[in-house]
Amino acid sequence: MAESRPPSGPEPVPAIALVDVVKEYATGRAAPAVRGVNLSIGEGEFFSLLGPSGCGKTTTLRMIAGFEEPTGGRIELYGENMVGVPANKRDVNMVFQSYALFPHLSVADNVAFGLRRRRVPKEEIRQRVGRMLETVELADKADRRPRQLSGGQQQRVALARALVNRPRALLLDEPLGALDLKLRQSMQLELKRIQREVGITFIYVTHDQAEALTMSDRIAVMNDGRVEQVGPPREVYERPASAFVAGFIGTSNVLRGRLTAVEAGTGVLDLGGGEVVTVAVPGGLRPGGEAEVTVRPEKITLTTAPQGSGSRLRGTVTEVVYLGTSTSYTVRTGSGAELTVFRPNDDRSALAPDRGDEVWLGWPTAHSYLLTGAAHPATDPLTPLT
Questions:
Q1: Distances (CA, A) of 74 to 60, 149, 218, 263, 318
Q2: Beta strand 46-50 with 201-206: parallel, antiparallel or unpaired?
Q3: Cys staple from 321: which of 29, 47, 328, 351, with CB 3.0 to 4.6 Å?
């Protein structure tokens, strides 16, 4: 007799949901700043909006905060439509790149400012501020003024001031942009630690791919007002959905050609000049269309002769760049394609070619990914089986 299982409960209500959100400005722009964005962000999730300047990520964040109103669509906080609700009536707080701390107040008084405005009892303020300063590891700096703190410490004060009010979500607009590289990297880990400890939903806007990959549970990659892909960092990096995502997240090689054969889930892409690569293809596709395939530089091996199965291309090294932990090789193949290859510098046994050397490039079929995004459509789309 099969074991009976209790019926699954209803799906949890997202902490924040965006439904067909559009934002247009009456400034003669040819296209809306945000175009039909749909997102569902879970409670306690660290969610990043990633993209280049002008892609709509900050506008999206400002609409969630209530500083901008959408032209169309809904913005929901725990199932309640927030469109038309003033920013001060939404149970969210926002942290900006500029910390906006009060220079004449102590660290503790800066953190307590919002609680005092809400007339929270003094003893509760003292306890909440003390606990929050411990969370951000600044309890020993409670009596100092902001000017006596480093940039990273000031940023943690700004976080504590926002979090002490216990918002249901914290919105962060490139808060680490003013910090130097080393401090920014250490603050990324601090932010993730703080978010785990407080358990509040974080929505983080950044144009820095490494930042998003380091901290996020999920990432929404935006381009030209649209969401190109949403997923965990590993999925977005390893399996980009479009040429834009492949190029924006780290470094990627994009190869264009015609799909000449499909068998048992593997396709053959003809690059021209007798060069082919293999790629896993979804069911329901048949050969004959133009396609784009991406492969990450660290997945490619350099050898003096063709080895193994999968994709194998012959080319000439045109550039060698030492990057510290790795070396970057640029290789031009016979068809004119240029590929970047990363090789760790701790591998002393690996081939170390110089400019002008002839090499073979190889990688398994599993490391080639077919791009299906609409941002850079193929000229002759792959034809589905009917």
A1: 12, 41, 21, 44, 51
A2: parallel
A3: 328
The structure tokens listed for 230 are 């949403």
Give the residue from 249, 245, 237, 253 showing the smallest Cα distance to 315.
253
For residue 32, the SS3 value is coil
3-state DSSP assignment of residue 253: strand
Q: What angle do CA 93, 94, 98 make, to 5 degrees?
A: 145
The three-class DSSP label of residue 54 is coil
Token pair recorded at residue 299: 């997945």
Residue 113 carries which DSSP code?
Answer: H
| Global pTM value | 0.85
Q: How far is residue 71's CA from residue 87's CA, in Å, rounded to a whole number?
A: 16
CA distances in angstroms from 272 to 285, 293, 340, listed in the order given: 21, 14, 19
Assign domain 252-371 one CATH number from 3.40.50.300, 3.40.50.150, 2.40.50.140, 1.25.40.10.
Answer: 2.40.50.140
Q: Where are the domains of the chain?
A: 16-238, 252-371
Cβ–Cβ under 8 Å, residues 136 and 199: no
How far apart CA 125 and CA 279 sit, in angstroms, is 59
